[in-house]
């Protein structure tokens, strides 16, 4: 099977899952009939491999408060949205359907509220906000290499870009270790770039408009999308994701780093979201407790169970500021996925790693990566991974943030496909096609 369709390009569909032992396989409701008992699938959806039974979700949906008055009827969409009693995200698995009725019922109102909110903001609030290429936000060395590759695509220019995406530790002399096979990292954002994005996100999340959980596993974060009910459709953030990060970074770099896995039409659509892990000390902060207990709705996300992404390529950017410290929260990766990978091992690595980048442990090509502020990692969506628990930094007091903030972008095919089979050498894109598109897709790369 060459492809699995994991998304809907026309609408946001939330999937459910079939769990076979340790393996979890997702499908969109529309495509459920196409699934077989063996777990083969042709379609699924945006959200990761963790989903929920639609019938079970009906018991947890919380509808909006429909009590109305004359003042309610005359209120603006923004005012109405701010009075909504949004349900709290509680489950940490199989939660894509959690409270879906609330978000669907209020989707149009929320979109109108965001449009009104953007109009009310001071004209200078978003001036140039969707741009990162002014030389101060993206690592200038990487930015220059990217611009050279766009201007004059060649193997030499690609080598310059690739040299910025290391597959080894920063300090070869003291820690001669490798990143997990198939995982690449770079210092993507400067502190100014991180601060810029965080400011935009903070403005949106303090708007008073309810926002939907980012996916079925993380409870804290937002979706950045113009069409998804409950997502944040702020134009400055969408432009930043679509024009600056997708077109200028993750799409061409993903094609360059994985030339046998990514083809011309395999990465034209995206799903973007933020996540937040919190290691602050409180009374009870364990994801393993009963997710159906009402007390769990107030808990923080401290880790992420092993999973695959519903993407061909994933970009994960750390949005912590230099002064925001924490301990743990390493991202661990299993062996690099082969084209016919059917591994279902989901145990967590036992090693208590101390280095920023870890050499492989029990997995031949696996390992663990510690994020630093502004750092980005890129990997295949099929590469199994998870996050180890986060905790309060040893040299921090209880008032320290002890949080990890990330922006994640999944790329996948225009029709929702995620390709599995590798390309033969003769079928792979040329250097020019990786940076300027292929025939009918060239408009995706048109920046001027």
Secondary-structure-derived class = alpha+beta
Unreliable residue stretches:
5-68, 169-176, 288-297, 342-361
| Outline | globular
Number of helices: 10
- Series of H and E elements: EEEHHHHHHHEHEHEEEEEEEEEEEH
Signal peptide: 1-33
Protein name: Fe2OG dioxygenase domain-containing protein
Keywords: Signal
Written account of the structure:
The chain has a single domain, classed as Sandwich (Jelly Rolls), CATH 2.60.120.620. The protein has ten helices and 16 strands. The longest helix is centred in the middle third of the chain and has 23 residues, at 235-257. Strand 2 (15-20) and strand 3 (23-28) form a beta hairpin. Helices cover 23% and strands 16% of the residues. It has helices at 54-58, 70-74, 77-83, 100-105, 107-120, 140-151, 155-162, 191-205, 235-257, 431-436; strands at 3-5, 15-20, 23-28, 184-187, 223-224, 269-278, 304-307, 313-318, 327-328, 331-333, 367-369, 375-380, 385-387, 390-391, 403-412, 417-419. It is an alpha+beta fold and 448 residues long. The strands form five sheets. The chain has a six-stranded antiparallel β-sheet with strand order 4-12-8-15-6-5, with helices on one face. A four-stranded antiparallel β-sheet has the order 7-13-10-11, with no helix packed on it. Helix 3 (77-83) packs across helix 5 (107-120) and helix 6 runs antiparallel to helix 7.
